[in-house]
What we know:
206 residues; mainly alpha; Helix Hairpins; minor pseudopilin epsh fold; 2 domains; 8 helices; 10% strand; binds fe (ii) ion
Amino acid sequence: MLSSHYPFKLPPLPYAYDALEPHIDAETMHIHHDIMFKKYVDNLNAVLRANPIYQDWSLYDLLAYNDDFNEEVGTAIRNNGGGVFNHYLYFDGMTPEKNEPTGQLKTAVIRDFGSFDNLCACMKAAALTQFGSGYAWLMFDGTSKLRIVKTPNQDPPPLLILQPILLVDVWEHAYFLKYKQERDKYFDAWCSLIDWNKASKRFTAG
Ligand SMILES: [Fe+2]
């Protein structure tokens, strides 16, 4: 998905809609994936249809070099391309098949956070203090350190500086049906669904 280009297609969920029950309900997954994620894909395609010079740019490049575009096109690509990028990583980063951190990522987490519980606590603090809508990320600086980052709205993270490892969507649409205003309970549920195998692959692919 990150290296693909126009026309973008909505990736299927990598598991059944009810696979993450009871942590994330099937209705939320249908609305979040089939309607909201799809809206960002459709809107990004519409922006690029009107700006064909960017149609062979990868999703990653559209976001990493977004500052080079004029303001109107850059904002439209950032909002909608960010929505595609962020949602792709969010849905792809969860699994109903519980797995454990291993290998180089496990070593780096212990080195930088002391424990996985502390990593989750640090990400939770970021997720709960993200004012309004946005995301909390675990990212890697490419050479030495894992970092927690917050981003507002559908802004992509600083891709030219940091490499995404995993993220949690803290827009209310991700949790309001089941958790109402209790973002903290949703975060705890999300923590139990992290696909550490994929996080490890992203870390070592860097
Ligand atoms: Fe979302």
